[in-house]
Amino acid sequence: MKDISEARNLTLLMDFYELTMAGGYFDSGYTDKIGVFDMFFRTIPDDGGFAIAAGLAQFCEVIDELHFDDGDIAYLRSKGCFSEEFLDYLRHFQFHCNVWAIPEGTPVFPGEPIVIVEGPAIEAQLIETLLLVTFNHQSLICTKTNRIVRASEGRAVMEFGSRRAQGYDAAVLGARAAYIGGAVGTACVLADRAYGIPALGTMAHSWVQMFPTEYEAFRRYAELYPDNCTLLVDTYSVTKSGVPNAIRVFDEVLKPRGIRPKGIRIDSGDIAYLSKKARKMLDAAGYEDCGICASNSLDEYIVRDLILQGAKVDSFGIGENLITSKSAPVFGGVYKLAAVKENGVYIPKIKISETAEKITTPHLKNLYRLYDKDTGKAVADYITMWDETVDAENGLTLFDPVQTWKKRTFENICVRKLNVPIYIEGRRIYENPPLKEIRTYCAQQVDTLWDEVKRFENPHRYYVDLSQKLWDVC
Q1: Which residues pair with 365 in a beta bridge?
Q2: Domain 4-141+330-364+419-462, what architecture?
């Protein structure tokens, strides 16, 4: 199946000011003026130690199909503020930009250029909203999911949030981002069809209520789906009827056929207490391998607390708190001009603000990550000018870009460039990896971070420093 974005022309998914600025650039003779834009974020959701980049594949799908059709041109003409010459330019629009980006699944930090766009200012300006909405949403959900997955300490996390998502695309692409972040599957069937994310789920309370008794509901389900029998046991009473009826059905329907039950699910009540009771009942009946799944408005803190309380839970179904990142629902990525290019020379551009975090880092840049050779752990990120080379053979001394007297020399390190070319003069040269590979890569990269960076409360601030040459430009 094609990407869900391919069924629609999303070219006009932009803020109106992008069009007025583009029209102004055109009418001012700036059609060929080259700009350099950075997409970056300023604060980490949930006050975490890192975020995770996601959304590159969908960005590529949209950029590959950029075009203004006759209906778009007619609509823009109706606004009465664009010249016919500009509309003709849009009618024959082609993308000529260079784009560099950090691969999906990579941990990222505030101020780092996740995406760099260099090209004609009109083209670079017109893709601002498309770029931001794509990376902001998926990076947010991927980051939130990874927090929950880390809290689960190896127990499976399933994304159950489609019905709480902020619209159709948020449900499907949110499931994709959650899978990258470590979820084992999704309740969203369309996400399975589109991206091959395992669709999971069994029954709702309505199934149990539809039958004359809970026992009959369980029995019929086991007869229909014996190889994937997970029963929802909290419709009436987990301990008085739900688990006893589940055990009875396991004994009567599955056991004679040599089939083991997959599990039970608890969706309400005191999950720590009820899971312990259920575990004892299942074990006593000979179903030690029957899993227990917990759901019901869970997040990373509740998951962590359940584990600390000794809850006998083998997997978690997470809905609204994951698919909306309810506790921190905005990623906050921005897209800012960093330089213009005139006569082959880059002229840095900077936004000044009384708020320090809103001051931008100018120029065309590269981003490197430093790894300790002995541990394989990431120790710092290093932002340089585009034409600098990084030689760490004899160690590398970094300084804090704010408190510049703070310096540290890193030795016995290897260096990896993070931003890779995606488009060269408008031609895509990057092939997005299969989703499973992105998911595996994400887990590997998160594992390169020290536990102190991965803490939920007061995480260690990861070093992101500028080269001396770049700092001098700033």
Answers
A1: 385
A2: Alpha-Beta Barrel (3.20)
Element (H, E) at 179: helix 168-181
Taking only the tens of pLDDT, the chain with its 474 residues reads: 455 555 578 999 999 999 999 999 999 999 999 999 999 999 999 999 999 999 999 999 999 999 999 999 999 999 999 999 999 999 999 999 999 999 999 999 999 999 999 999 999 999 999 999 999 999 999 999 999 999 999 999 999 999 999 999 999 999 999 999 999 999 999 999 999 999 999 899 999 999 999 999 999 999 999 999 999 999 999 999 999 999 999 999 999 999 999 999 999 999 999 999 999 999 999 999 999 999 999 999 999 999 999 999 999 999 999 999 999 999 999 999 999 999 999 999 988 877 777 788 999 999 999 999 999 999 999 999 999 999 888 899 999 888 888 899 999 999 999 999 999 999 999 999 999 999 999 999 999 999 999 999 999 999 999 999 999 887
Whole-model pTM? 0.96
Q: Domain ranges in the chain?
A: 4-141+330-364+419-462, 153-323
| 365-372: strand order across its sheet | 413-417, 365-372, 378-385, 464-466
Residue found by looking up tokens 């089939």 in the block:
259
Distance CA 275, CA 266 (A): 8
d(CA 262, CA 291): 6
Q: Does domain 153-323 have CATH number 3.20.20.70?
A: yes
